Amino acid sequence: MLNLPVYDTDGRQVDTMKVDEALFGTKVNVALLKQAIVAYHANQRQGTSATKGRGQVEGSTRKLFRQKGTGSARRGSIRTNLLRGGGVAFGKRPRDFRQKLSKNMRRAALRSALLAKMLGNDLLLIQGLSIKAPKTAVMAGVLRKLKIDRSCLLTLAERDPNLYLSSRNIPNLTVRTASELNAFDVATRQKMLLTTEAMKVLTTREGREEQA
Question: Would you state the pLDDT for residue 1?
Fold first, then answer.
């Protein structure tokens, strides 16, 4: 069992929460986590870069001058990649960079990312996080009291417009709900801040999946 500290909005530790690491795989699957991150990066690529080869540019196919006897380097048509306006050698073509991950692989990668954050003491739990009206200064003050000055992933149990609007202007702070989490978001942020309600949602969901 892992004992995770629970903080209030003033940065004081008020409780601890016991979490069974078996729900998150017991051991971090580094190879799968890396594969998932590479796949998420690859899936963000548009793959629309395109250049024309020598067979696609306009111009005559006539050989510019005879092969030998001119003193110049041998040369073919004006479409050659050696001349300005010619085609590109080994030019880029539109392609799909997407890499597929099965549902089980995505879930396992997320569990490994969460477990890595817990074992590295980079996951913090907070209770009583609520804002009555959108105010960036309030959310920034909470992060300052928790000594979070790096990229952070704030995870909520459900959508909260006030918390979202109070967080969107803070650099390096990303807001997600527990149902929206993925391995890429968790692994690429240095800190993770969860509400206690969001942690209960995660542990309950992982418990149901393990029983299934």
Answer: 83
